[in-house]
Amino acid sequence: MKPSPFAYAKPADLAEALRLKADHGDDGTFIAGGQSLVATLNMRLSSPDILIDIGGVTELSGIEVSDGSVRIGALTRHRDLEDSPDIKTHAPLIAEAIAQVAHPAIRNRGTMGGSIAFADPAAELPACILALDGAIEIAGPDGRRKVAAGNFFKGLYDTDLGTGEMITAVEFAADSDDWRTGFDELARRHGDYAMAGLAARLRMDGDSIAEARLVYFAVGDKPMLATGAGGELAGKPLSAETIEAAAASLDSDLEPFDDLHSSAAMKLHLARELTRRVLTKIAGGAQ
Ligand SMILES: Cc1cc2nc3c(=O)[nH]c(=O)nc-3n(C[C@H](O)[C@H](O)[C@H](O)COP(=O)(O)OP(=O)(O)OC[C@H]3O[C@@H](n4cnc5c(N)ncnc54)[C@H](O)[C@@H]3O)c2cc1C
What we know:
By secondary structure, this protein is of the alpha+beta class. Helix content is about 35%, strand content about 25%. It has 2 domains: about 5-55 and about 65-175, 2-Layer Sandwich (Uridine Diphospho-n-acetylenolpyruvylglucosamine Reductase, domain 3), CATH 3.30.465.10; about 180-285, Enolase-like, domain 1. The chain contains 13 helices and 14 strands. The strands form 4 sheets. Strands 4-5-10-6-7 form a 5-stranded antiparallel β-sheet. A 4-stranded antiparallel β-sheet has the order 11-12-13-14, sandwiched between helices. A 3-stranded parallel β-sheet has the order 1-3-2, with helices on one face. Helix 5 runs antiparallel to helix 8 (about 125-130), helix 10 (about 225-235) runs antiparallel to helix 11 (about 240-250) and helix 11 packs antiparallel against helix 13.
């Protein structure tokens, strides 16, 4: 199918982008990498009057590390994350996850802000930002605000973004030496959206786990922080027994539903298996 006709504007800076959005309201749609939006336009799931192309708003690009925190501009491409030594050093979870996002051609165009705004429940980056306990920086008609990732993802393709608002960056604390991270997903083919996935971070206190953030994706309507499984791990060593207890408690943490790829029961099974794989790998010191 072809999209409905639309006008096109390419603002030179953030102020102009927000002004255009304010002028057109819900009839205007931002386009960043276009890797999700163009498909929805072509299928006529979305028919905006005007596309506001933020690709020229250079102030939205780039990765900065300062004072122990990492800031990734909304327009930073997946490819830039993949190539960044700062991401490898300070956010190894993202470094590990990004290679699983689609294929190189899509990673050359897709952006951090687009992935977070689109909020596909099977997407890797929203799960990583939640596991990193990050914040989403938003600009809009009322100025700038920050929302914790835990409050940003509301449901299926639904976020806290209001009318006229744009994501400008994501921020999170750089990993210190006491954090261990692991990531894995199960997909029919490498680069496909996951049938189930896990982004995991453990803060160690000697041999004990001080804090565990296990975030599952493609097993619910948004990235899911498994608080029960995290509780099973907290204060204990990372052993075969604690890993099995965490996997078992997913029955109450997750409520997957059937989708095109697998049944709810299969997704729960995959999530348990990912828990074993990722935590066993962390226990082995592979990450
Ligand atoms: C074949 C294929 C396979 C894919 N596989 C995966 C996969 O395995 N995992 C995965 O995570 N993704 C996958 N994707 C999606 C890809 O990662 C997209 O690039 C990403 O989801 C959206 O980024 P984008 O910059 O292209 O956003 P766009 O397509 O430009 O925009 C997506 C939505 O976000 C909005 N938006 C964009 N930027 C902003 C902003 N700064 N502020 C507010 N709203 C904004 C747009 O208005 C639009 O509604 C796949 C895509 C394709 C085509």
